[in-house]
Amino acid sequence: MADRTKSNSKHRKHTGSGHDKPANKAEPAKRFHFRYVLKALGPGLITGASDDDPSGIGTYSQAGAQLGYGIGWTMLLTFPLMAAIQEISARVGRVTGHGISGNACRHYSAWLLHVVVTLLFIANTINIAADLGAMADAAKLLIGGHSIVYVLLFGVTSVLAQIFLDYKRYVAVLKWLTLSLFAYVAALAFAKVEWGEALAGILIPRMSWNFDYFTTIVAILGTTISPYLFFWQASQEAEDQRVDKTKRPLIEKHYGARREFSRIRADTIIGMAFSNLIALSIIVTAAATLHAAGKTDIKSSAEAAEALRPIAGAFAEAIFALGIVGTGLLAIPVLAGATAYAVGEGRRWPVGLARKPKEAAAFYAVLALSAGIGIALNFTPINPISALYWSAVINGVLAVPVMVLLMFMARRRDVMGRFVVNGPLYWLGWLSTAAMLLSVVAMGVGFFVGGNS
Asked: Which of 107, 323, 388, 403 is most deeply packed, by most CB within 10 A?
């Protein structure tokens, strides 16, 4: 019997059957497809791309228009800081099977959770309103019509897609929407960039000791490191475990932890690098066109798109405006979803975009409420620029306690088990937290100095 087994084994080997195919008979290599790359990436890519929402585009456009190439170095500064805090957020979600709110309600006092979640709800809802307004203005630039119709169209479509689309299909749609951000790389082709000055601005920090300069740095930090991104990425890592039945929280199933952490790091670094590349493209485009032409007062992303027409041409304006619509369609679901996850996990409700509406009615109700209020704010006389400013203030103030909470959470063994965060990642997380604290202090000083001047 043993000899027959050996004989059969040899026969299979020589005939190329089974798994042992001869090298010269190997299957042809698969062709590269971008969709395979997108499929391999996960929450980190969507999180990074959604960071460049219409509100963020307005901030980066204003920075480039006001300060020129010399502000580009901030993108190199923020990249490791945002990558570190986002990786820590993702690790918490993957290890515990819960998002930030889900862990906070299990290990911290209820009042702290309520304050954080309330502020997050307010900031995200105002941000949704501002993004919808910017998207509507961009659509009006492209095809005319009434802004309020576009606000309703974009807002309602985003909510219905989150509630009724299959989760895997919806995530695939969000991944494809990240491609809309390449509009800002394309816009560079229409800008006469002084590449020597641009590279010097990126690689060599040049400080200007004035109020406007530091206000812009604070705005950039507040835009790139936002609390809703922490909540979203942590909750999406937990969500993936509910969708993929082969996955369990690493605290329960230790096997494969190193592979999962490597995936999270690669996903997060690629997502944040993509985010910063797009932000840098917007800054350089604005510097090469608007700043060079002396147009330094840009208050919104739509205004930046409109201002490009006489300088870089109608096509550049159209590309910029299309990017605003595309990034808004990506960011609004993340803003509303992060709010719903934060509230739902804090209340220990059934949560998750993979659940049917009847299985997580309260979760979807919060999502719809946040987006609905965001839509309604566009029907009020509230100044969208003022609303966006206060949203940035709330986000900046909220980011610090959330980051402190996250750093303590990532170090607790009763939360993370053997997978507590340590080493360079841990200290980079604290450095990111310190940078946000300094930015909030600077914002507060600027507010009082500006108010008294």
From this structure: 323
